[in-house]
């Protein structure tokens, strides 16, 4: 396993150690969250945990959870005890950018209902300001997407429709993603408000003030950031 993979797994294990029997747990998406889902399955199979319900933030995470023996239910209005997920950027105040894995809408819908949102990452995700390394993913409707992209470019110049091949990337919700390049200076809450007010925008990858703790694995050990 490569060094970063080892670190991701270390962070994931720290988060899954917080899970107790009977909990309803939000299951994140991505290469770090994958380790958490696998560890949850391992703990269930080993009899360390019982009566866990997982609520998956993507079809991929749901499939993995079922594969490793974590029971999955759809999101309903009941709170989740805990949600565990990765992030693309983590700033010093625990504000996040998420969605490079394309699951930002289901992640936000799920994690807003969690009593505790636990973020797991390796140290490359730490930034001094959001947008330093990663673009901000913005989920937009397919209908009229070219017009929405123009509106977004007027608001945040720079960025592009996510298109890994001949066709645009399609989310689990049937939408497209616009990856916005953030300027060097901006006010995240205000930009979030403006983006959410833009016709055609479904959700943004800003997760502001949502995370309770981050386990960030470094070569020197796992840092706990609150
Ligand atoms: C998916 C996400 C992921 O949590 C984020 O992209 C981090 O993924 P990884 O752990 O693979 O780096 O927000 O929508």
From TrEMBL:
Matches recorded under InterPro entries: NagB/RpiA_transferase-like, Ribose-5P_isomerase, Ribose5P_isomerase_typA_subgr, Ribose5P_isomerase_type_A
Molecular function terms from GO: ribose-5-phosphate isomerase activity
Reaction equations catalysed: aldehydo-D-ribose 5-phosphate = D-ribulose 5-phosphate
One Pfam family hit: Rib_5-P_isom_A
Subunit annotation: Homodimer.
The protein's name: Ribose-5-phosphate isomerase A
UniProt key word Isomerase: yes
Pathway: Carbohydrate degradation; pentose phosphate pathway; D-ribose 5-phosphate from D-ribulose 5-phosphate (non-oxidative stage): step 1/1
Gene Ontology process terms (BP): pentose-phosphate shunt, non-oxidative branch
Broadest EC class assigned to this enzyme: isomerase
Free-text function comment from the UniProt entry: Catalyzes the reversible conversion of ribose-5-phosphate to ribulose 5-phosphate.
Keywords tagged on the record: Isomerase
Annotated residues for binding of substrate: 29-32, 85-88, 98-101, 125
Source taxon at top rank: Bacteria
PANTHER family: RIBOSE-5-PHOSPHATE ISOMERASE 3, CHLOROPLASTIC-RELATED
UniProt-listed Enzyme Commission number(s): 5.3.1.6
Catalytic residues, chain numbering: 107
Family from the record: Belongs to the ribose 5-phosphate isomerase family.
